UniProtKB/TrEMBL annotation:
<keyword id="KW-0813">Transport</keyword>
<keyword id="KW-0769">Symport</keyword>
<feature type="transmembrane region" description="Helical">
    <location>
        <begin position="193"/>
        <end position="213"/>
    </location>
</feature>
<keyword id="KW-1003">Cell membrane</keyword>
<keyword id="KW-0472">Membrane</keyword>
<protein>
    <submittedName>
        <fullName>Dicarboxylate/amino acid:cation symporter</fullName>
    </submittedName>
</protein>
<keyword id="KW-0812">Transmembrane</keyword>
<feature type="transmembrane region" description="Helical">
    <location>
        <begin position="52"/>
        <end position="72"/>
    </location>
</feature>
<dbReference type="Pfam" id="PF00375">
    <property type="entry name" value="SDF"/>
</dbReference>
<dbReference type="GO" id="GO:0005886">
    <property type="term" value="C:plasma membrane"/>
</dbReference>
<feature type="transmembrane region" description="Helical">
    <location>
        <begin position="12"/>
        <end position="32"/>
    </location>
</feature>
<keyword id="KW-1133">Transmembrane helix</keyword>
<dbReference type="InterPro" id="IPR001991">
    <property type="entry name" value="Na-dicarboxylate_symporter"/>
</dbReference>
<dbReference type="InterPro" id="IPR036458">
    <property type="entry name" value="Na:dicarbo_symporter_sf"/>
</dbReference>
<dbReference type="GO" id="GO:0006835">
    <property type="term" value="P:dicarboxylic acid transport"/>
</dbReference>
<feature type="transmembrane region" description="Helical">
    <location>
        <begin position="155"/>
        <end position="172"/>
    </location>
</feature>
<feature type="transmembrane region" description="Helical">
    <location>
        <begin position="225"/>
        <end position="246"/>
    </location>
</feature>
Length: 430
């Protein structure tokens, strides 16, 4: 009788884990605000250990998965020159969505005026890191040592090396065919590891949420409530409305089906706050549940995780308007146009740089003459917004993958429209 009961789906278990973690975190914060035992054994003990093991497990799969899947996809292309077309389409789409995101954010900021009446604290400071030059960014795309790039998780260098390796395999003939069999098998093993890890996700998600919400200082969020809510609402609207309109307009595919199948990826992105750490889940969903060919997905997903910064662009748009209003500095239409252009180009030019969001914001503020120390105002509420930004970014990665796949005839629409695609294989109860 018990075996015949319907088991909860993986998505349901992850959602339950997330909300249970949020609830436990709130209760610990409320009932034991300064408990040394709770902090030592739970918050920074059990929850920290489980959460970090979960994050590390995801990151463990990123490099082998990206390298192997890209090699398999590249060497399977009948025409290696097709890569240039794929790259051009992908980068152009990512830049367009980023430009739309920051334009939307600026308009919302100008209309709502989140910084009006906010007192500027005298101790607000911020020291931005130096952004690399465009020439250095281009040079750094090519790894001196591919193994070092893999060890350091330098995604753009890994992508370049994997593409070159895959092209060489396709051109070399029989040795390449033999090696392709090995990489095909390797790819299957890595994807199985992803599925196993996904079934452990509810516990990792619970621990991450419980730790975060037991440590978050909500007084800071309330003091900047208008700014926080505006960024949050614009992020949600962009992730749901803008992406749906673009997807429907360019492919004719159902946004409802797309968003429903993206729920797990969005939750992973929200809890990890890292597009790179979410790559294994995004790629598994894009290829197995949305029907995108591995030839396309293995290229567009890692690229998007590195250069697609729609969520960050929204934060920058609202933050720029907010800081201008706090310092009572009027920006012209030309200034706003410069913000859009700078943020869009910087999303490509600073890809893969640590702390890229704040570096980009410092660049944007500098372009329109706003004080960089204004960033110190918003850092306190940035953690929760960063989680939402990542959910938006990974949704954008999948949407662009669908558009590129559809345009190249590499999309299986039967899989896309099948609500149960890949569920049996993924729902392994451990």
């Amino acid at each position: 009788m018990r075996d015949n009961k319907k088991k909860l789906s993986l998505t349901a278990r992850i959602v339950i884990g997330m909300f249970a973690g949020i609830l436990v975190g709130f209760l610990l914060k409320l009932l034991f605000p300064e408990s040394v035992l709770v902090e030592g054994y739970l918050t920074k003990g059990l929850f920290h250990v489980i959460g970090q093991i979960f994050i590390s497990s995801l990151q463990m799969l990123v490099v082998p998965l990206v390298f192997v899947s890209l090699v398999v996809g590249t060497c399977s292309l009948s025409d290696p020159s097709k890569l240039g077309r794929l790259g051009g389409k992908s980068v152009l789409l990512y830049m367009i969505t980023t430009a739309i995101a920051i334009s939307f954010a600026i308009m919302a900021g100008v209309l709502i005026q989140p910084g009006a009446g906010v007192a500027m604290p005298t101790d607000a400071t911020f020291e931005p890191s130096q952004a690399p030059s465009l020439a250095q960014v281009i040079i750094d795309l090519f790894p001196k040592n591919p193994f070092s790039a893999m060890a350091n998780g330098n995604m753009l260098q890994i992508i370049i090396f994997a593409l070159l390796f895959g092209i060489a395999m396709a051109l070399v003939g029989k040795p390449g065919d033999r090696l392709k069999g090995f990489f095909d098998d390797f790819n299957e093993v890595i994807m199985k590891l992803v599925i196993i890890l996904m079934n452990l996700a509810p516990y990792g998600v619970f621990a991450l949420m419980a730790k975060l919400f037991s440590e978050t200082e909500f007084d800071t969020i309330f003091s900047l409530g208008k700014y926080f809510l505006l960024v949050f609402v614009v992020l949600i609207l962009h992730g749901v409305v803008t992406y749906s309109l673009i997807l429907k307009g360019l492919t004719g595919l159902s946004p409802k089906v797309f968003l429903k199948k993206m729920r797990e990826v969005q939750i992973f992105g929200f809890t990890t706050s890292s597009s790179n750490a979410t790559i294994p889940i995004t790629l598994e969903t894009v290829t197995k549940r949305l029907g995108v060919s591995n030839k396309i997905g293995s290229f567009t997903v890692p690229l998007g995780a590195t250069i697609n910064m729609d969520g960050t662009a929204i934060m920058q748009g609202v933050a720029t308007v907010f800081i201008a209003q706090v310092f009572v500095i009027d920006l012209t239409l030309a200034d706003y146009a410069m913000v859009v252009l700078t943020a869009t180009l910087a999303s490509i030019g600073t890809a893969g740089v640590p702390g890229v969001g704040l570096i980009m914001l410092a660049m944007v503020l500098g372009q329109v003459g706003l004080p960089v120390e204004g960033i110190g105002l918003i850092i306190g509420v940035d953690r929760l917004l960063d989680m939402t930004r990542t959910s938006v970014n990974v949704t954008g990665d999948a949407m662009v993958s669908l558009i590129v796949a559809k345009s190249e005839g590499e999309l299986d629409e039967e899989i896309f429209n099948d609500e149960n695609a890949d569920l049996k294989e993924r729902d392994v109860h451990l």
